[in-house]
Amino acid sequence: MKLELGEKQLAWATKTLEQTAKKLEQVSRGSAHKIPYTTVNGVHDDKSGKRDSWWTNGFWGGMMWQLYTLTGDPFYRTVAEENEKKLDTNLMDYDKMDHDNGFKWLPTAVANYRKTGNRQSRNRGLLAAGQLAGRYNCAGHFIRAWNDWDDNGRDHRGWAIIDCMMNLPLLYWASEETGDPRFRQIAVHHADTAQRCFVRGDGSVRHIVEFDPDTGEMVRDYGGQGYEEGSSWTRGQTWGLYGFTLSFLHTGDRAYLETAERIANYFIANIPESGLIPVDFRQPEDVTWEDSTAAAIAACGLIELAKLHEGRQQKLYLDAALKLLRALADQRLNWDENEDNLLTKCTGAYHDKEHEFSIIYGDYYFLEALMKLTGQELFIW
After folding, report:
1. Phi and psi dihedrals of 263, rounded to 5?
2. Catalytic residue, candidates 52, 98, 163, 340
3. Torsion 368-372-378-381 (CA) sign
4. Theoretical Cys-Cys bridge with 231: which of 98, 247, 259, 282, CB 3.0 to 4.6 Å?
5. Is 150 an annotated catalytic residue?
6. Which uninterrupted H or E stretch holds 39?
7. pLDDT tens digits for 203-238?
């Protein structure tokens, strides 16, 4: 469906995108040879080298491909291609590969192949998809998250997480690209399991579910990066919202669309009047920590949902997305061109020592949302 943006809404989105692109033009030149995650004293850090396997390392390349699509400036393509090549050391290190291959290689290698037809990039994308498919547990019909045991001695062999819904498009792409249905079958099986085991009746979402790796039976769930078991980690809500929408777009299975709508309706019902999103919808009342990344990701998912509807339903999702984006632009955007980040007050996890700092994927999804609204996006997922 066509987005029915009002004249003022489109004007706002266009102007905000222009301001964002203007700032990123300067920022990208200073960070051209980095793979940023956050900022230190206003300057991007760099995950190149020893931290090349960090799960967010594809988002900088994704921003560059979006800006290349927007402007046609070959500089952005050059930066994106450098980011992609730096991830080769991760791609060839089995112990550092995990469930986040989609986050790393869809915005880099697959985006490159889609834009330019680069066969080396296609090869990288297919290698990443093959490794992701290899994490599939046949008994439980889920894609395993992390490797081996964590620092606390917990066995991860049966762990799956809601985040992986956003990695499934790598498998859908690989299936379409090669004609091999196995990639798609694995993605569908995982989505079905997530639909059954991660999404509660009210539309809230669990972060981590543990299965018996041998029998596939569900053992328990964990609070993960949220406040506690049974709570509602907001970024997890957005991975589910956007992820099930994407699975519907790739498969046409209306059960995925209905699941995405249930999560979206729950999310919308819990948006504070301010439009600023907490780390967990069920965190204690005296805790004020926010996660701006959740707002930006939710906006992207809501815009895609809006495209699938007409009339009042489209308006519901579109108005919610615009409320989130306006709140970010007005209250949580760092427009200072001498500092590298866009969003402020992003949080990785509720129980982390640090809260409310800049995170690169928040910036990426804010840019993606604006490009969706103006009809200029490179569809990466």
Report:
1. -65, -45
2. 163
3. positive
4. 282
5. no
6. strand 39-40
7. 999 999 999 999 999 999 999 999 999 999 999 999
